[in-house]
Amino acid sequence: MHLSVHSDEPLKFLSDFTPLRVTERQTAAFEVRLSKKTDALLIWKVKDKEVKRDEKFDVSVSEDGLTYTLKIKDVKVSDTGDYTISIGDLTATVPLFIERIPINFTSHLKNVHIKEKGKAHLECEMSSKDVHIRWLKDGRDITGKPHYIFMHEGKRAEVIIEDCELADEGKYTIVCTQDNDKHEYVSSANLTVEERFATVKHGMSDAQCPTGSATELCVVLDDEKVDGVWLKDGEEVSNMSGVQVVKQGTTHKLIISAVTDAHQGKYTFRAKGAESEAVLTIADPPEIDSSVLDMLGAQPVTVKAGQTATIKIPFKGRPPPKVTWYKDGLEVMEDDRTKVERSADCTSLVLSR
Fold first, then answer.
1. Are strands 105-107 and 181-194 parallel, antiparallel or unpaired?
2. Are 75 and 28 in contact (CB under 8 A)?
């Protein structure tokens, strides 16, 4: 006598298909328990693509043939999605959610103290390189502003400020976010900008120049990072004809290509903590028109006895030159009969009876 038992129990899933939540970089494991052993093939799919065993996925079945397991190693955000299990006429879908590892700052922003016109670096390092970054100054977004240089290489982020101004002082904050993570991760530090002062190493001296000559006024400071301004008679020099302002390291120059009357005056160079002054005047050497001397040589001044004789000589020269008359090699001295008249551009010798 033989006893045969046939089970007509339908194949069904015994598992509770609840969403699976796993922290990234861990291993996610789906388990499916069947009601009975079957020769049908169980297929795992994600995003409509069948899952095959490889370095990423591990597919296995228990010794009793009832429990099927899918392991997803080193899960990433890209592994998020619906995973479908199909066997025979049975199908079930289980969503997988990947929770992000919080961003940590392995090196926070540090306070920076720098002199005006210096170069400031504010840098930090995060635990992940796959982050989105925003930079704030005193709570306002400065990301992408041309005044700053932004660097993000791997896990390191940095903002650079060249030629710092006093207005750059403040609190700087980096805000890091990542996909599938609503949290913001921040680090802050203060930038202190110290006002920069200079002293004069070599100042200007008063200058006298001939009309039309080239000249320059020069000031040397002790700090090349300090800028200055040039003034003439108290007014800033700007767009002045024939004038060029040059800065070469610590040396500041005001160059005049051809001196004219308009260039005469008091010049001041002024910088933070430093000032130098000089007066520029025109100094043209005395010059007597040779044609006048030639004429006097050819036509001596002739007067009758008892009359007054006047000899007038025009000249040029600045500042007005000292005028001396000579007779037979001896200086003419003024007396009741001899007078020397002087003006800015001529002199006269008057001989009376």
1. unpaired
2. yes
Please give the structure tokens belonging to residue 108.
Answer: 């926070």
Question: Which of 174, 63, 178 lies closest to 121, judged by CA?
Answer: 174
Residue 112 and residue 289: Cα distance in Å, rounded? 71
* Nearest CA-CA partner of 309 in 318, 317, 300: 300
Q: Which two tokens stand for residue 134?
A: 């925003």
My answer on whether omega of the bond before 300 falls inside 30° of 0, hence cis, is no
Helices (H) and strands (E) in the chain, counts: 1, 32
Report the candidate in 170, 64, 200 with the shortest Cα–Cα distance to residue 109.
170
Query: What pTM did the predictor assign?
Result: 0.62
The tokens 């919080």 sit on which residue?
Answer: 102
Residue 82 to residue 226: CA distance in whole angstroms: 64
Share of the chain above pLDDT 90, in %: 66
Beta strands 20-23; 90-99: pairing state: parallel
Burial class (CB in 10 A: 0-12, 13-18, 19+), 11: middle
Report residue 166 as tokens.
């006093």
Q: How does pLDDT run across 247-293, given as a tens digit for each residue?
A: 999 999 999 999 999 999 999 999 998 999 999 998 888 878 777 77
Residue 240 in tokens: 């002045």
